[in-house]
Amino acid sequence: xxxxxxxxxxxxxxxxxxxxxxxxxxxxxxxxxxxxxxxxxxxxxxxxxxxxxxxxxxxxxxxxxxxxxxxxxxxxxxxxxxxxxxxxxxxxxxxxxxxxxxxxxxxxxxxxxxxxxxxxx
Length: 121
What we know:
By secondary structure, this protein is mostly beta strands. It has no helices and eleven strands.
């Protein structure tokens, strides 16, 4: 059974930090690219950060560059999003995503249930 379980969300003051974790099971974690998305009320879900299999590459949306860091621990089957210098506009539900496209073009994609991040004074 595939599971992605996010944790670490909460309420934080502007300028504060949070660390989101995505613990996974039930699939070949090491072979999957991992991504964090977020969705704010009334807005579409947006890609925040991604990390390739083997952590060869990372990508960030412009609004979080220099503030957020994505990482992965294949031994623990966990992806992490370190968020620093948080701003009110970072408020959203954050989702963990795992995705793999194999040589035949078949795509496998899994989502977590989301964790709420609220940045407010």
